[in-house]
Amino acid sequence: MEENNLETIHTEPTYINPNGEDCSVIDYIMFSRSIANKISTVTRLDSLSGNVSDHYPVHCKTEYIPKRVSVNTDNQMMKSSRIKWDKLDRYIYSVQLNKSLNNINCNIKSKAGLETAVNKLNEILKSSAEAAVPRKSTAYPKS
């Protein structure tokens, strides 16, 4: 973890042995030191009635402030596109996604390579959805 500049916050024991006792912490949430100040809590979720695993889920709460990126300067309005996922044409989405994923070429040997790959994947998911789902555009006054 040190060589990759990663951190974790320890929680209560997360593994339940066959006798039903909490015995060790073996489940973690790892994060980059560069965002450590954005992690507000890491907790063990031990009161989930549907959990049938011998591990407790671990929950992380972070501070995230989304940035608005699309600005239309012509009419002083910002637009946010909403994708209607319930209207998804699964066939078109699948075809578009497979076509794009087959053409992806990523060199993940460094942090920059990983970032590039994640950005490419996000763009593929977005463009596949845009091709397969009718879009609704909502205009908001520029603030």
Structural description of this entry:
This protein has 143 residues and is of the alpha+beta class. The protein folds into 2 domains: 6-62, no CATH class; 71-141, no CATH class. Helices cover 24% and strands 27% of the residues. It has helices at residues 90-102, 111-132; strands at residues 6-8, 15-16, 22-24, 30-32, 39-44, 58-62, 71-72, 77-83, 135-141. The strands form 4 sheets. A 3-stranded antiparallel beta sheet has the order 7-8-9, with no helix packed on it. Strand 7 (71-72) and strand 8 form a beta hairpin. The longest helix has 22 residues, at 111-132. 3% of the residues are buried. The mean pLDDT is 79.
Enumerate how many helices there are, as a single number.
Answer: 2
Q: Tell me the structural class.
A: alpha+beta
- Rounded to an integer in angstroms, the radius of gyration calculated over CA atoms is 21 Å
Provide the low-confidence segments as ranges: none
Largest sheet: 3 strands, antiparallel
Taken together, the total number of domains comes to 2
* Number of distinct beta strands: 9
Percentage of residues in DSSP E strands: 25-35%
* Strand/helix succession: EEEEEEEEHHE
Features:
143 residues, alpha+beta, three-stranded antiparallel sheet, extended
Provide a concise account of the structure shown.
This protein has helices spanning 90-102, 111-132; strands at 6-8, 15-16, 22-24, 30-32, 39-44, 58-62, 71-72, 77-83, 135-141. The protein is an alpha+beta fold and 143 residues long.
